[in-house]
Amino acid sequence: MERIEKFIDNLPSMDLMRSEKMTLVQLIIPVESAHRAISYLGELGLLQFRDLNSEKSPFQRTFVNQVKRCGEMSRKLRFFKDQISKAGLLSSVHPVVEPDLELEELEIQLAEHEHELIEMNANSEKLRQTYNELLEFKLVLQKACGFLLPSSNLAGAEERELSENVFSNDDYVETSSLLEQEMRPSDQSGLRFMSGIICKSKALRFERMLFRATRGNMLVNQAPADEEIMDPLTGEMVEKTVFVVHFSGEQARTKILKICEAFGAKCYPVPDDISKQRQITREVSSHLSDLETTLDTGIRHRNKALTSIGYHLTQWMSMVRREKAVYDTLNMLNFDVTKKCLVGEGWCPIFAKAQMQEALQRATFDSNSQVGIIFHVMDAVESPPTYFRTNHFTNAYQEIVDAYGVARYQEANPAVYTVITFPFLFAVMFGDWGHGICLLLGALVLIARESRLSTQKLGSFMEMLFGGRYVLLLMSLFSIYCGLIYNEFFSVPFHIFGGSAYKCRDATCSDAQTAGLIKFRDPYPFGVDPKWRGSRSELPFLNSLKMKMSILLGVTQMNLGIILSYFNARFFRSSLDIRYQFVPQMIFLNSLFGYLSLLIIIKWCTGSQADLYHVMIYMFLSPTNDLGDNELFWGQRALQIVLLLLALVAVPWMLFPKPFILKKLHSERFQGRTYGLLGTSEFDLDLEPDSARQHHEEFNFSEVFVHQMIHSIEFVLGAVSNTASYLRLWALSLAHSELSTVFYEKVLLLAWGYDSFIIRLIGLAVFAFATAFILLMMETLSAFLHALRLHWVEFQNKFYHGDGYKFKPFSFALITDEDD
Question: Which portions of this protein are annotated as coiled-coil regions (predicted)?
């Protein structure tokens, strides 16, 4: 046993097996070099600061004003970004790199640009509003005149209006504020009219309301406007309708005005005199022409200003984000008693200590500080954060494990084994080398475009797919491997590795697939013999094969989980967990389901017809009875009795000793007998990681006993349910194979039986659609989720606590746009 332990101790350590060793460090930074030191540490990205001002609100912290200034600058930059987007301009892909700006200089620049843009927007909005009013007035004049002029004079008036494109100043009669003049009231008792314009969508309701308000004592004429008008609020083009309402009486006029106001209709005065109408039309057209020129000039000037901002926008946003992150981090530091130094604490990996000290020395030198930054290691009582160094390949697998729970500090990492077991169990359910090739092509496309896609903003689904590109790669490769074992290419078998071992009973028979086959040569060298496809015994044979294979894979993976619990207990020096948890769990699981796996292998090797259901059931009901034809080897009955007794003994072995030993150790420690254990303040945490205690004085025997009882019952019941859960490998593999067969035989072959090219094309399209969306998307997702469940529940619950917290260093590389 000692030799085995020495061999294990001498094994080289795996980077991903245990999280990085962490240390708690303290920094004492002079005020004059604090900003530069934090900036350099942010560029390094290997220190997680502790908040030493957690009792203070954000408004009570030292650098709250600087954070507010950065927040205000972020608001201005978002305003610029929105304005550039609304103008249809694009930020520069290759921004201009300016020399380093000070925060105060950037703040002044941003304030000037914002003031300029707000002023331009206000002027543009006023001009646009005036332009819209003049355009509406022009449209009202054009349409209302047609309703007011007699039909005999209308054609002549329009000809005169169209012919007067150019006019001299002598013809211009000065009329002050004709746009604002109200229509002169005619005789109070006579017929009057009111003209205006309204949105086309409101015209019908507007007319109905007028009719009800005046009790039908009015006449409405409507005509669609020839031009769409821009809504100043939304910037969209809106269709309008010109209306003329004829009415009588002052009371009706008041009602109509109120209704117009309620519906957002604008009323414009149209004079009775034709010459005055022409004069106002010329005046409005002239104003419109001038305003168009002014608006175009303003838009060009505004776009030029936005373009110049766009060249620097990316750099400015990055700079403000970094500055805000620096001041947020400085707010986590404390002033010392002299108010001349800032004190900070944080976690860092041990391998990064030299890099951090070098960065702090550079910060002292660059800030011309007379006092250096003090960096020293502290003792920690709390558990450190968990940090795994991953790459592009292993990161996705680590994320799968972390989604269940972040590993406890220095706990065995399931991701090491998940890299292989996860895609393999997926492939057991998905096995088809035709479908595997399709997945492989998709994975290779994502990997080939990795550099380009990594810089783009992807949708949620595409981002998830791109993040798991290497998971998809291994899933596809294992699917091809399992598909070759199942001998399925879109459910069609091929003679890839030689001829079949079976032939027809009779050389003349034509129904060999149904009448039965005979074996005439050595077995097919790799995978399932293609002759099984379509035979009478195909389904029973494949069911038996895949069901037994699922049990073997499940028992193997559960044993791996229990073995990893041994390495955890050994690493944390918890001999109690090895003796009273690992050993009885291994005995219980393998006495029952390890024995079942052994029977499966023996049955495969010997070709026995023994009924394993009968063997396992009567192992519990009648262990002493003769096995008869179900006996697979000599001494099987005696072995079954021994294994059953071991399984029964293993249950109290798991349940009782550990709580009582913990109670004894606790009482001895406080009576002064175990002096060697008094020196460590983390005895409970390190030696008994599963105990319910955190401190000596909080030891509660009943709580520890209940916890151990729950854990034992969970394992005993879970050994049965988890083994049964692995049968999903068989069920999903069978479902995938049968679905593929149905689509191939009932869609593609059925369509190919017709001579019509159109029917064949339709059949091929339906088969391709079903393969892509059902087999390659839905079945892939289903197998992925089932493989995920097998790892999270059946595998990881044997050894993985997952109650740690992730290492989140202060790093500029981790700052995203959402942090604004």
Answer: 101-130
334 closest CA partner among 63, 68, 70: 63
- Closest to 653 (Cα-Cα) out of 573, 750, 586: 586
User: What distances in angstroms separate CA 86 from CA 89, 236, 294, 520, one per listed residue?
Assistant: 8, 12, 20, 78
Query: DSSP string of 707-753?
Result: HHHHHHHHHHHHHHHHHHHTTHHHHHHHHHHHHHHHHIIIIIIHHHT
Instruction: Single out the residue of 589, 617, 649 nearest to residue 598, CA to CA.
Output: 589
Q: Which of 10, 788, 794 is nearest to 399 (CA)?
A: 788
For strands 22-30 and 229-230, give the pairing: unpaired
CA distance 397 to 419: 6
Q: What SS3 class is residue 341?
A: strand
Whether the CB-CB separation of 266 and 133 falls below 8 Å is answered with yes
Helices (H), ranges, 624-682: 636-655, 657-670
The pLDDT tens digits of the residues spanning 392-437 come to 999 999 999 999 999 999 999 999 999 999 999 999 999 999 999 9
Q: Which of 641, 701, 102, 141 is nearest to 110 (CA)?
A: 102
User: Per the structure block, which two tokens stand in for 5?
Assistant: 């332990």
| DSSP-derived 3-state class of residue 377 | strand
The 3-state DSSP composition of the chain as helix, strand, coil percent (nearest 5) reads 65, 10, 30
Question: CA 510 to CA 221: how far, in whole Å?
Answer: 88
Instruction: Give exposure, 382-391, as e/b (b: 16+ Cβ within 10 Å).
Output: eebbbbbeee
Backbone phi, psi, residue 386, to 5°: -100, 130
Phi, psi dihedrals of residue 163, rounded to the nearest 5°:
-80, -20
Q: Are strands 517-519 and 240-248 parallel, antiparallel or unpaired?
A: unpaired
Q: Give the pairing type, strands 374-378 and 341-349.
A: unpaired
Share the mean pLDDT of the chain. Answer: 84
Q: Are 299 and 124 spatial neighbours (Cβ–Cβ below 8 Å)?
A: yes
Query: pTM to 2 decimals?
Result: 0.78
- pLDDT of 631: 87
- Closest among 733, 691, 456, 401 to 574, alpha carbons compared: 691
- Give the separation between CA 354 and CA 3, rounded to whole angstroms: 37
- How confident is the model at residue 5, as a pLDDT? 59
Which 3 state secondary structure label does DSSP give 206? helix
Q: Helix/strand/coil (H, E, C) string of 468-485? A: CHHHHHHHHHHHHHHHHH
In this predicted model, what pLDDT tens digit does every residue of 609-641 receive, in sequence order? 888 888 899 888 888 888 888 888 888 899 999
Instruction: Report DSSP state, residue 507.
Output: T
Over its C-alpha atoms, the chain yields an Rg (Å, rounded) of 41
Q: What is the DSSP string of 93-137?
A: SS---PPPPPHHHHHHHHHHHHHHHHHHHHHHHHHHHHHHHHHHH
**Dist CA 589 CA 650 (whole Å):** 9
Tell me 810's DSSP state. Answer: -
**Is residue 500 within 8 Å of residue 531, measured between CB atoms?**
yes
Predicted local confidence at residue 506, as pLDDT: 63
Non-local (6+) Cβ contacts of 540 within 8 A are none
Tokens describing residue 563 = 């073995």
Residues 6+ apart with CB under 8 A from 625: 618, 637
pLDDT at 688: 40
The interaxial angle of helices 538-571 and 728-743, nearest 10 deg, is 140
Query: How do 229-230 and 334-335 pair as beta strands?
Result: unpaired
Q: What is the mean pLDDT of each run of 10 residues along the chain (820 residues)?
A: 58 75 93 92 93 88 91 93 86 57 87 93 89 87 72 39 36 38 45 88 90 87 85 78 88 90 89 81 88 90 90 90 93 83 93 92 89 89 92 93 93 94 96 94 94 84 90 96 93 86 66 64 86 81 92 96 95 93 95 94 89 89 85 90 95 93 85 48 40 51 91 93 95 93 90 89 92 92 95 94 93 76
